[in-house]
């Protein structure tokens, strides 16, 4: 493939981004955004989901900042949904779905995405976004952030009672992403300090002690739960074992944090780069092409053997983004090679040039499947994968795109 900075490759990424956006625009429903089926249509039972609404709002904000026509109206639709039917006006925070539609506990994972969406919408200039951002920050600080633990608590009942006796790396990973964006939008370096504290606990603490395999599940005292969900290994958000896709995602976020702290004039621990390298290397070693077929398996057991062999689109999107970040940071050819390898696999297997967007899942033989993920509900991972290689490691996506617009 062409080099990461070539005009040809940049044009290809831009075109692929337009394809993804055109497909995702059909997800709009009155109360936000809903999940599309494999053909890009709303199922008869389509219902707005807060996670989908937040991810779509964030993605359309990025598209607006790129100058894609029609996207600001979609951002403002998402903002109004987050201000209205998806917001809990009684207790604060956000439901999983509109009130009365079920699944209305309060999860850190979800609120991290609301904060990310609100921050991007503010940068995009969307009406009402500042109020959503202020509410998201208030809820994170008052309900989820534990100063004692240096991380987020996991979840509560809708009235903020019954805290879950569980701590998760996944929710804290997306909190790290959101905190990096909040630091840019608010100008408050406290968010960079909080991001570093999360990384110190989960990566420098637990992952480093486990040969840079990301420990995903913990009890309320941050003791690892290695057998968690052993009977439910294909869980969407809390699968058993280790998740190579998260190792790639953490790798990129460590480099983003390093660059953001450097820009802010803060100390940048040397282990951020070393850990990013190790996370990436181990994920490649243990998860790529390990069962006789190309691709990255969804999960590994603690013996580093494949446990769930399906290939998920988001894992490969994050692998591309991580390789691009390491290449940008180090200039080393090995990361250029991996970057080309991952995109070649996505191009030949995941990109659906007939039905649109990307297949969200492949079976172990690399044929389209839906054992874990039905349909094509998610724009976030794939769209970020076509943007991140074109941008610096910091600031965060929306702020970086806004700076590009300013320079034109």
From TrEMBL:
<dbReference type="Pfam" id="PF07221">
    <property type="entry name" value="GlcNAc_2-epim"/>
</dbReference>
<dbReference type="InterPro" id="IPR012341">
    <property type="entry name" value="6hp_glycosidase-like_sf"/>
</dbReference>
<comment type="similarity">
    <text>Belongs to the N-acylglucosamine 2-epimerase family.</text>
</comment>
<dbReference type="InterPro" id="IPR010819">
    <property type="entry name" value="AGE/CE"/>
</dbReference>
<keyword id="KW-0413">Isomerase</keyword>
<protein>
    <submittedName>
        <fullName>AGE family epimerase/isomerase</fullName>
    </submittedName>
</protein>
<dbReference type="InterPro" id="IPR008928">
    <property type="entry name" value="6-hairpin_glycosidase_sf"/>
</dbReference>
């Amino acid at each position: 493939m062409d080099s990461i900075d070539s005009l040809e490759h940049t044009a290809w990424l831009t075109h692929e981004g337009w394809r993804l956006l055109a497909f995702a625009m059909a997800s709009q429903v009155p109360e936000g955004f809903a999940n599309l089926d494999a053909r890009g249509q709303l199922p008869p039972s389509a219902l707005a989901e807060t996670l989908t609404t937040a991810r779509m709002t964030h993605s359309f904000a990025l598209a607006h900042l790129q100058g894609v026509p029609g996207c600001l109206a979609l951002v403002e639709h998402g903002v109004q949904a987050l201000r209205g039917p998806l917001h809990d006006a009684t207790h604060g925070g956000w439901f999983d779905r509109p009130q009365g539609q079920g699944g209305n506990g309060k999860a850190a994972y979800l609120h991290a995405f609301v904060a990310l969406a609100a921050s991007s919408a503010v940068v995009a200039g969307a009406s009402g976004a500042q109020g959503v951002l202020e509410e998201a920050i208030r809820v994170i600080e008052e309900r989820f952030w534990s100063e004692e633990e240096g991380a987020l608590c996991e979840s509560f009942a809708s009235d903020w009672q019954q805290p879950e006796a569980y701590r998760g790396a996944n929710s804290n990973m997306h909190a790290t992403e959101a905190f990096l964006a909040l630091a840019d939008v608010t100008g408050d370096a406290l968010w960079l300090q909080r991001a570093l504290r999360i990384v110190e606990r989960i990566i420098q603490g637990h992952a480093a002690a486990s040969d840079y395999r990301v420990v995903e599940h913990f009890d309320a005292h941050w003791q690892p739960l290695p057998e968690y969900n052993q009977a439910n290994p294909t869980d969407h958000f809390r699968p058993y074992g280790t998740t190579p896709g998260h190792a790639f995602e953490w790798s990129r976020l460590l480099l983003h944090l390093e660059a953001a702290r450097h820009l802010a004039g803060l100390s940048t621990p040397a282990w951020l780069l070393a850990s990013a390298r190790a996370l990436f290397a181990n994920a490649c070693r243990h998860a790529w092409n390990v069962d006789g077929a190309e691709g990255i398996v969804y999960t590994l057991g603690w013996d580093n053997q494949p446990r769930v062999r399906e290939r998920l689109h988001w894992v490969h999107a994050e692998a591309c983004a991580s390789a691009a970040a390491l290449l940008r940071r180090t200039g080393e050819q090995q990361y250029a090679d991996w970057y080309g390898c991952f995109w070649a696999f996505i191009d030949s297997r995941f990109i659906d040039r007939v039905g649109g967007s990307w297949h969200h899942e492949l079976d172990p033989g690399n044929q389209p499947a839906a054992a874990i993920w039905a349909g094509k509900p998610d724009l976030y991972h794939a769209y970020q994968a076509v943007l991140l290689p074109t941008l610096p490691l910091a600031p965060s996506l929306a702020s970086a795109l806004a700076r590009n617009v300013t320079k034109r």
